[in-house]
Specification:
heterodimer, A: mainly alpha, two-stranded antiparallel ribbon, about 70% helix, B: mainly alpha
């Protein structure tokens, strides 16, 4: 099946869904149905989009181009390549699962607004991955911010207001500096009247960006993406936001929003500013390895289950930046796979922590225990996702991390060399096994508490939410080749642009 | 007769607004009190709409009244801005005026007179026309601020505003006198020709420049000449505050553009550096003080100072050419829509004995008045500068000339200020959406007209944010007459 303008439709469907949502706003049943149908249609549409994509080609496909702000040369330019084409269905799937799970009764207050926020959020998330004009990308990047602010702030836990303000202020601080950098890029892109922000044209005119300019602009872009990702030391908003967010919010926050940072590096920062990349690369690699080790170490000592998963995200995203900045195909493909894997697996972990919390109303690991005896189904699912998260071969976590480590070992363009940073990062994989298995043991095994004795196992709705994630985790783990075949050509293209020998001009 | 008509046609919109004001005053005397409440605002809006439509009937451009008045695309732009702002303020006022026992006839007529003054500023080609327009605009606003005669805060507001306003007018007119002394003319173009010849070297020129900058700085509420703003905004009747916070400011920028970009254009290198510093101080000062406010009306008052700073940044970037002027115009328009809307949202909280609204009074507003709260939310997001709103586009358009003129440090300060502003704007959202309503909190009734007006401007805020091109094109056109 071919659908024309499929990317525009992907951006339009959630917006269209807002209308019936408003009409039926006082009827929770209809609200849930509208939200589920809308996100399901969106998911189906994204799969059609994936089917229309020709794997093995490097360039942008399904491109749509229209004039938007002609007096500034700004265009509505959307398209996908091998890097983004898999992130879009991941987004629509996680949104669908979040909406499905939230319609099961966890959200009782103002459900129409809740679902509305998710639909707006979905526009922003899909938009980030398909935008090929920097202005459009920025608009979409910010469009993700406001709904998440409301989702955490209205439907979150006791410290939700502190957490959501922290989340917004951190993110805005980064992105507004990026906005200044975007305007600077626009000004440098050409002479009066021929300026542009469309990625293909910018790539053609990037020779105009001097080394000093690239240094500063990369810093501004990098700061925005590093905060979103988040990289150590900009990660402090993440544990707060995750702990207070409602389950669906956590799933999307970890599953999709963090990827916007990694994706931003690959899509814009690396190809547009090769000199900037070279200059900042050592800093980012060191910070990535620190994130991997620090995230793992902090996870180990967490008393709160949700915080543990949140800090493990910091470690996992460290692999993403590490893979991107070693600038070779193994590392890059591994980074993209790690983004997908982290979306499915950490999304699932937050889902299961949420399911557990709904029943026990406890998040402290010390208050839990022995759940395996009562909840066989829950234990099986949760166990598989925990194993995937620690990188067990055969599940999705392994492929990405392994490729990233391989790429790091081969990389020499950093002080001390890949043979130092590779093993250092590998230590993080071992630590992951320690904190995840220890957590699993304390939560699931041991004597069961009296109060939890009669709590029910997974409901059919919860199983329905978990199964697609489980299938994808296993599929990506056992059979990653189709995904790699889609990602690799486009990634090679990005690397060629980022390591263009014409841009190795030393910066003094 | 023929010559009279020829003379009047170019300023048809101004004439219509003046007639509207008179008609409202007469109707106020003739109508029975029960009908005044709705007939008078209806008359005002009809008059303003006629004035709006009268704009295109006037000859497209040229100089009139012996060269004291000029009609061009710049004039047309500001005419539309002022008429729209006045019409909006009229629409949200009726139930407030009734609650507060303010005579509606006086209110609407004064509003119209002030609008004529603002429009005159945009027509000016001469320091004298400019000064007449400025006084015609501000004197009615002093009256508007003090219209609640029995309220001591309103008295304070009116008196403070009047004293500082008179003071700044004196400085300004003194500066004009020096300018006349230096150049021998009050025409902007003649002043520019003379300054082109003499440059900044003459000490008298420096005195003139300083006095004009300070005088206009007072009118636009530039830090450190802003002290009158919070008290005046706070004490005035809220619909008047909504108008006061945008129209006189827009007019002040119209004056700044006309005087600086034409009359003082030869000295642009000298004043633009001063304005860059003033812009940075203004936005930072306004935002930092706004952070500490717990009363929303005062918070918005201080935040309006910060917005003056953003607009001033574009003024300072005049070296970037038309994109700087267009950015000022676009920002003024965007600011008008969103700030008027935000102030008007406070009308929902105007209950007996309340002044503005404390943050606590906003608690749970989203539950009690979902659409009103959502409109407020949209205005706040836009004031913060988050897409997809017109406030975001306005900020981008300001950053463009600022970077282009080489003020990278100022662009970074703008970005950091937007983060500061996000903190206090979003705190309002926190109170509206994330706290439960206090039981027994008083609620304003009869808000249909208000909600309709807010709905329209909230939609405009988003639509202009998504499709800003035609507004920007219009601003670029309006910037044309200011090019050398």
């Amino acid at each position: 099946m071919t659908i024309d303008h499929v990317l525009t439709l992907l951006l339009a469907v959630p917006a269209v869904g807002l209308l019936p949502l408003y009409v039926f706003r006082n009827d929770p049943r209809s609200v849930k149905q509208v939200a589920i149908v809308t996100t399901l249609v969106e998911l189906a549409l994204s799969l059609v989009m994936l089917a229309q994509f020709h794997a093995g080609e490097a360039g942008f496909q399904l491109v749509e181009d229209a004039s938007w702000l002609p007096s500034l040369g700004i265009r509505y330019l959307v398209g996908v390549d091998g890097i983004s084409v898999l992130l879009v269905p991941m987004t629509t799937l996680l949104t669908f699962i979040s909406v499905l799970y939230s319609s099961g009764g966890v959200i009782k207050d103002r459900i129409a607004s809740f679902m509305g926020a998710f639909l707006v959020l979905e526009i922003g998330m899909v938009g980030v991955f398909v935008s090929l004009d920097l202005f459009l990308f920025y608009v979409m990047f910010e469009l993700m911010l406001v709904p998440m602010y409301l989702i955490i702030g209205i439907w979150g836990g006791p410290r939700r207001i502190y957490s959501t303000l922290k989340f917004v202020i951190f993110t805005l601080a980064g992105s507004l500096l990026m906005l200044v950098a975007i305007v600077a890029v626009w000004l440098m892109s050409g002479d009066e009247g021929s300026r542009t922000l469309s990625l293909p044209e910018l790539l053609a005119s990037r020779g105009r960006f001097s080394a000093e300019f690239q240094f500063w602009v990369f810093l501004a872009f990098g700061l925005a993406f590093a905060i979103k990702l988040p990289m150590v030391p900009f990660h402090t908003w993440l544990p707060d936001a995750h702990v207070e967010a409602p389950t669906a919010g956590s799933i999307i926050l970890a599953g999709v929003l963090l990827k916007a940072g990694g994706y931003g590096f690959l899509r814009f920062a690396l190809p547009l500013f090769p000199v900037g990349t070279q200059l900042w690369l050592p800093v980012i690699i060191v910070l990535s390895v620190i994130a991997i080790l620090y995230g793992a170490a902090v996870s180990t000592v967490q008393k709160d289950l949700k915080k543990l998963v949140a800090y493990s995200s910091v470690a996992h995203m460290g692999f993403v930046t590490l893979g991107i900045f070693v600038l070779n195909a193994q590392g890059g493909v591994g980074a993209v796979l790690q983004m997908l894997n982290h979306g499915f697996v950490t999304g699932a972990l937050f889902l299961f922590v949420g399911i557990q919390y709904e029943r026990t109303h406890r998040r402290l690991i010390a208050d839990l225990g022995g759940l395996a005896n009562r909840w066989p189904l829950y234990t099986t699912f949760f166990g598989i996702f925990v194993l995937a998260s620690l990188g067990l071969p055969g599940l999705s976590g392994f492929v990405g991390e392994f490729l990233v480590l391989l790429g790091t070992f081969k990389f020499s363009g950093v002080p001390l060399g890949g043979l130092f940073w590779g093993p250092a990062a590998a230590l993080g994989v071992i630590l992951a096994a320690v904190y995840l298995l220890w957590m699993f043991q304390r939560v699931m095994y041991g004597p069961v508490r009296e109060a939890y004795r009669n709590l029910p196992d997974l409901s059919p709705l919860e199983v329905a939410c978990a199964v697609p994630l489980l299938v994808l985790t296993v599929l990506l783990g056992v059979f990653p080749q189709p995904a790699i075949a889609i990602i690799e050509p486009s990634l090679q293209q990005v690397l060629r642009l980022a390591t263009d020998p014409g841009f190795q001009v030393a910066f003094k | 007769m023929r010559t009279f008509v020829d003379a009047i046609v170019p300023i048809l919109p101004e004439v219509i607004v003046t007639i509207t004001a008179c008609v409202v005053l007469i109707a106020d005397g003739l109508l029975p009190p029960s009908q005044r409440r709705l007939v008078l605002p209806a008359l005002t809006v009809v008059g303003l709409v006629l004035a709006f439509l009268g704009g295109p009937l006037a000859p497209p451009s040229g100089q009139y009244f012996g060269g004291y008045v000029q009609v061009d695309t710049f004039t047309t732009f500001f005419r539309a801005v002022f008429i729209l702002l006045a019409a909006f303020a009229t629409l949200v006022a009726p139930s407030y005026l009734e609650r507060r026992g303010i005579a509606p006839g006086e209110f609407y007529a004064t509003l119209c007179f002030s609008t004529v003054g603002a429009m005159t500023i945009a027509l000016s080609t001469d320091l004298i026309t400019l000064f007449i327009g400025l006084e015609l605009m501000t004197i009615p606003v002093y009256v508007l601020a003090g219209m609640q005669r029995r309220d001591r805060f309103a008295n304070e507001a009116a008196l403070k505003y009047f004293l500082l306003g008179a003071f700044s007018s004196a400085l300004l007119v003194y500066g004009f006198a020096w300018l006349y002394g230096v150049s021998g003319s009050t025409r902007y173009l003649d002043v520019a020709t003379e300054l082109q010849r003499t440059g900044i070297a003459n000490p008298a020129t420096i005195v003139a420049l300083a006095l004009v900058t300070v005088g206009l700085g007072f009118k636009a509420a530039v830090v450190p000449f802003h002290q009158w703003t919070p008290d005046a905004y706070d004490g005035a009747p809220t619909p008047a505050t909504a108008f006061m916070s945008v129209a006189p400011k827009a007019a002040a920028f119209a004056a700044i553009l006309r005087v600086l970009f034409i009359g003082l254009a030869p000295l642009a290198v000298d004043w633009s550096a001063v304005f860059a510093v003033l812009a940075a101080v203004t936005m930072t000062g306004g935002n930092i003080v706004a952070l500490a406010q717990t009363n929303t009306k005062r918070m918005l008052a201080y935040s309006s100072i910060a917005h003056t700073g953003y607009i001033l940044a574009a003024v300072a970037a005049s070296a970037a050419g038309p994109s700087a002027t267009a950015a000022v115009l676009f920002y003024v328009f965007a600011y008008g829509v969103m700030n008027l809307g935000a102030f008007a949202c406070l009308l929902y909280f105007d209950t007996q004995g309340s002044r503005g609204a404390t943050l606590d009074e906003l608690n749970g507003f989203a539950r009690r008045q979902p659409l009103g709260a959502f409109a407020f939310f949209v205005f706040l997001i836009s004031l913060t500068g988050i897409p997809p709103t017109v406030g975001f586009v306005a900020k981008v358009l300001v950053i463009v000339p600022v970077l282009n003129a080489g003020y990278a440090w100022l662009a970074v300060i703008i970005a950091l200020n937007a983060v500061l502003a996000a903190f206090y704007y979003l705190r309002v959202v926190v109170h509206m959406y994330m706290y439960d309503p206090d039981t027994g909190a008083p609620m304003v009734v009869n808000t249909r007209l208000l909600s309709a007006a807010l709905g329209i401007s909230a939609v405009a805020t988003v639509v202009l944010g998504v499709l800003p091109n035609s507004l920007y094109e219009w601003a670029l056109q309006a910037a044309n007459p200011l090019l050398p």
